[in-house]
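dumping these here so i dont lose them again. two proteins, back to back, each one seq then structure tokens. dont judge the mess
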Amino acid sequence: MKINILIFDAVVFAVLACGCVQQDKESTPGNVSGNISESGFLEGMVSIGPICPVERINVTCKVPPEAYDARRILVYGKGKTEVFREVSINNDGSYRVVLVPGSYVIDINRVGMDRSPDVPKEIEIKFNETITLDISIDTGIR
């Protein structure tokens, strides 16, 4: 699934870069229409921790791929009433999504006791711009 999303994003980026294909209009949250060729991007890094119940100084527990697989970046319309997109997090903690211009609320699906001071966060996507939103997830493990 992650590979399919990455391939889709790469294809969309290539089409946007060359401008050689005209895309149909895509609906955005709040019933605002926009042309997919006039998209922007949301990207960032997700950190998850602590992973081990007892972490020692200078000894870190590596975040297993399953920890990233279980979590998603949720993209809501401005009113946060409906999930517009669910974005997978890569095993290195990175994510990237193509969005049509508009207002969005970004959040995470919470697993167990997960919490983050970084979300929910309202963002504004503009044509051909990239918004970076890094998210630190506290697992609650102590």
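---- next one ----
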Amino acid sequence: MLPSVTFGFALYVPVMMLVFEYLFTDDLGFKPSYMPSRRAALQALFLGILIPAVSAIIPVRSALAKSLADSLTTGRSKLSGILVTFTDNRNPSVAPYVLFGSLALIYGSSIYYFLPKAMLEMNLNLIL
């Protein structure tokens, strides 16, 4: 966890230096700094350590809930049984599927058309 955060910080500086050299040329009239502020670096370090630590809590707790032999055995299945359900497919009703598919098609098409139009025209009523 800590080596990956350190590697990320070490790789950030040369990569951002190249990106900033490419994006911000001298004809723009200003040259922003690619070095993060102390506050931004501390926040990134805090999140880079906190998120993996929090995401490891659930797998560790589930491993500790079982015995050591059960936790280390990967060959056995973790499922205890199989559930089989039988359905009668002689008269399937496709009406709900067709209705939902049609509504989803209309909704998606309207978003695809009206959202860019509203953003280009700066029409907030149409966006909402």
